[in-house]
TrEMBL record:
This is SDR family oxidoreductase. Belongs to the short-chain dehydrogenases/reductases (SDR) family. Pfam families: adh_short. Keywords: Oxidoreductase. InterPro entries: NAD(P)-bd_dom_sf, Sc_DH/Rdtase_CS, SDR_fam. The keyword Transferase does not apply. It comes from Actinomadura montaniterrae.
Length: 267
């Protein structure tokens, strides 16, 4: 029996990257998942995971899309135990001075709509069901949620906001619903850019990234699945709420001369 046996999950941003990997792990652990994404790629999960997943194509920025996801879970399995707000886009590390002033408001609205408004909408849509099941919320943050230079001005501000959401929602929803987050550092995936800034999807791992990491390895895309599983488990994380779990390959403790004390560098 898996650690999530019998639990029902609504999971946004499930079509690719970390989200797709975690949904696959959740299904293997016994969960039933409504997998939500704006991309049609999410429908591929049905063939891969069978009746454990119901794919849903919808915009996480809309109230209607979030309500539909929650209602799908209730109609299909009769309950909801976990809401995972994982959908996110990047600004491709665009600094403020490189964003034309007349496009700044539109870029802000698009990026914050996905990274901040969407999880708020999702939690609100799921709230009654989560209170009834005494369930939990998991939000995907970032290294950029507590550091500079993990993204551009818009992305960094949005991920700082996600950390605030985890703390505030954990306070507001205690004791009925636990709220936690995961702050990944590096993952080998392509991130959707901010279209109002003229951006398309781009590789998230840049040249030289491995050498900059204290752990000296680019983690596999499923490296974060265990943390998401831990936080969804009713037993293993029963005492955790308001916690942002940092999983950044050591970026937060990176040294100036060398990324890590035993890392060998050229020269």
């Amino acid at each position: 029996m898996g650690s999530l046996e019998g639990q029902v999950v609504v999971f946004t941003g499930a079509g690719s990257g970390i989200g797709r990997a975690v949904v696959t792990r959740y299904a293997a652990e016994g969960a039933r998942v409504v997998a939500l994404d704006v991309s049609e790629k999410v429908t591929e999960l049905k063939a891969e995971l069978g009746d454990r997943v119901v794919p849903l194509v919808a915009d996480v920025r809309s109230w209607e899309g979030n309500v539909q996801a929650v209602q799908t879970a209730l109609d299909t399995w009769g309950r909801l135990d976990v809401f995972v707000g994982n959908a996110g886009i990047t600004d491709a590390a665009r600094p403020l001075e490189d964003i034309p002033g007349d496009r700044l408001a539109a870029g802000f609205e698009e990026l914050f709509g996905v990274n901040v408004l969407a999880p708020i909408l999702g939690v609100r849509a799921a709230l009654d069901a989560l209170v009834e099941s005494r369930g939990s919320v998991i939000l995907t943050g970032s290294f950029a949620g507590s550091h500079a230079a993990g993204g551009g001005v818009l992305y960094t501000a949005s991920k700082h906001a996600v950390e605030g959401l985890v703390r505030q929602l954990a306070y507001e929803l205690a004791p009925d619903v636990r709220v936690n987050g995961v702050a990944p550092g590096v993952a080998p995936t392509r991130l959707k850019g901010t279209t109002t800034l003229g951006q398309t999807a781009a590789d998230s791992v840049l040249d030289g990234t491995r050498e900059a990491l204290p752990l000296q390895e680019i983690p596999e895309i499923d490296a974060y699945s265990g943390i998401f599983t831990l936080l969804a488990s009713r037993s293993d994380s029963a005492v955790m709420t308001g916690t942002m779990v940092t999983a950044d390959s050591g970026l937060g403790i990176r040294g100036i001369a060398r990324p890590g004390g035993r890392v060998r560098t050229a020269g």
